[in-house]
Amino acid sequence: MIIGTPKEVFAGEARVAMTPASALDLQKLGYECMIETGAGAGAGYSDADYKAAGVSVKKTAAALWKDADIIAKVRQPEAEELKYLKAGKTLISFFNPAVNDAGMTAAKTKGANVIAMEMVPRISRAQKMDALSSMANIAGYRAVIEAGNNFGRFFTGQITAAGKVPPAKVLVVGAGVAGLAAIGTSTSLGAITYAFDVRPEVAEQVESMGAEFVYLDFEEDQQDGAATGGYAAVSSPEFREAQLAKFRELAPEVDIVITTALIPNREAPELWTEDMVKAMKPGSVIVDLAAEKGGNCKLTVMDEKIVTENGVTIIGYTDFPSRMATQASNLYATNIRHMMTDLTPEKDGQINHNMEDDVIRGATVTHEGEITFPPPPPKVA
Ligand code: NAD
Predict the structure, then answer these.
(1) Mapping DSSP to helix (H, G, I), strand (E, B) and coil, where does residue 348 land?
(2) What is the residue with the minimal CA distance to atom 41 of ligand 1?
(3) Which residues form the Alanine dehydrogenase/pyridine nucleotide transhydrogenase NAD(H)-binding domain (predicted)?
(4) Is 380 a residue whose pLDDT tops 70?
């Protein structure tokens, strides 16, 4: 079978789902590999790089979608791509099945199989295919780099002949995958780093990375239940008040705030209010990784960088992985390659869409003309 990767059509998207290295691995599974011309350009890979790795290059997206049996891409298909879906073809990409009615309907009526990368179950066995985590890791790292780029001082403290420099103080709100990556980056740059999460079980991880966990004066059992299945639940009003009071105390102290707090299937909780922004020192920076879900900071503007009247920079970019397109493509292409390994147990270049397999079943959102989303809960933890 042929596995093909088109050039991403979403404006500004620089990632690519197949790299020359992943193509070599896919060929070891028995597949022929194909790309659309220029597909890797944004990530630093030329057509010649792919050809050297045994990949054939098609001149148009239409030709690629026609010839490939399996299409691997990054973003959910745009309308102009949905028309290429066909029975017997398998698409592997992010797909947003819960809110992508046009995509789900097209895939069902055309009888195409769709594997949605965000639906890979978050169980140990599937970590190697967990593209949400690989992309969140990049976003967390890049958020700190972006903050540093907009902050006029060093992260680390220094004593130099030209004067004494205090270390920057960084607060990371939300210590999931992106938050932990931000914490690791911040501490390694030498900033004094604080972190908060509604899930108290992450305190140990935060502290092991050299950051200080921010505890609230709050009886844990008064809370509505901070966590379900490793994810956050909505906080009780009392807990939220205690959290906001702690943040108000920290606002004049911290130089950089990275917010990553998300609750599955909901708008992001608003945690950094206007008065907190006003209380921050001029030159401070907020990077809001929840911008796409409405933002954790009241003043965040999605996809923009703004500077408030009191001189606080607020960054609401939603494309951090694409801003590190080579790294993101390498990791994403590896996630895809691992998915293909599980889909090709015989290494014979033939896809075996085993719906009895928890991971494949969980990620499959349409199969042979049926909608198979949402999936049943995984049997293995
Ligand atoms: P996420 O992106 O949904 O949320 C980010 C963080 O925001 C979470 O840590 C959450 O607790 C926190 N948050 C929510 N509301 C908050 C609030 N009001 N204040 C402060 N923080 C708040 O989460 P994620 O990064 O995708 O990870 C969530 C969980 O899934 C973690 O426990 C993680 O370890 C786990 N996980 C497991 C696997 C695996 O086993 N394969 C893979 C990835 C993640």
Answers:
(1) coil
(2) 122
(3) 148-316
(4) no
